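Q: What structure does this chain adopt?
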Amino acid sequence: MVARMSVAQADAERERFPTLSAAGSAMLAFLREHPAAPAYRNESGNKLLAHEVEEVRHFEREVVTARVGWPAGGKPAWLMDFVRDTFASVPHYRQLGSVPRDFETLPTVSRADFAHDIAAFVPDSADLTRMINFRTTGTTGHPLVIASHPVVAARYLAFHKRAMRRFGVELTHGAGQVGVVLLGYQKRCFTYVSVTPTMGESGLAKINLYPDEWRSPDDRATYLDALAPEVVAGDPISFAELLKLPLTMRPRVLLSVSMLLLPALRAQLEQRFGCPVLDIYSLNEVGPVAVFDAAAGGHVLLQPQLYVELLDPAGRPVAPGQRGEITVTGGFNFCLPLLRYRTGDHASLAFGAGDDAPVLLGLSGRSPVRYRTRSGWINNIDVTHALQHLPIPHFGVHQCADGRVILRLAQARTQLGEDARRALEALFGAGAVALEVLTAQDKTVQYSSDLDGAHG
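A:
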């Protein structure tokens, strides 16, 4: 029996879905009322007005085919116009005075600046009546409220489509079909159903694979098979749980975001589901930045209006080919224009041949950490390389002040845990690595150390 909406519920649904058709309403009902559906904890919607739907479609067409990048040793042609507009319209920059002549003399900003006063970074032109915001915690100790807009949220799909097109995937699902399922695996997470108006109101569901969110754990496979989504997006933790389910669905592509995806786990997923698994480097403050392409040797940039610098700890550009902190200018969020925003992530930058976009090499999240071995210091990238042949969804490696190494992972008490410990002992020496169970399911700091010199 289909539950009847109250007048208040119907009004709220119209606010969440201003352009909702009968077909879109039927899709929402299907997602919510399927016998195996989970307990959806929240309500969300696209909130796009009719003219905004067309604007987003136009934006997608432009992004998919746009050239991304700038000359090696140079800067994008649009860069200084963007700086001048930002200085004129954003309170934080307006109070700094005139625009510096040299881009490199602009002060950098970080997550801490946004956490202190996000309103100072919102342009005067932002329509506050249409603004939305969401909270993010991250691993840096600076919780954020990100200023955004329904159009900005809808624009994410354009960059995902660009990434998919690189691997030969063109989305086709529309009315009456489920386009995207977003996966989580946490004791509690934001879950909802929606539709995507730029894709014919195809269905979208954010679900939590944690068993307590379902009437029966078996319902997870039943529900996912019934939805048969074209795209499944998640992180290595939720994908590791997905591999345990007796699924028959065959998505066109899997998108991994927010955490390091080791090659062995990616290979397992590709073999199981018979589709590409794309590792997308994405941040809440910036959106989708790059997609990993083994043929290019790293993460290929996706945004035409995003300039990337690599800076040393003092804020100076590093020499070509050297590793530095990824620092970005531009972006597609017109509610939060970015000027030299230090992401806390590190890589080196390479320029491809011809029209190919610049590539981030050796991408690692947060500040780099050095580990001391019996033969000297090594980089956290060496730790990643030692573990990359194992299908580990998530891990943490900590070095104590006495040099002992603690490897934390959920599979600590399994053969996989022993294999991981032995892989690290090849770096640190026999008996130097202890295993502990990783209990945190989100926002774990992957690399840490108590040793002097580890962060220098």
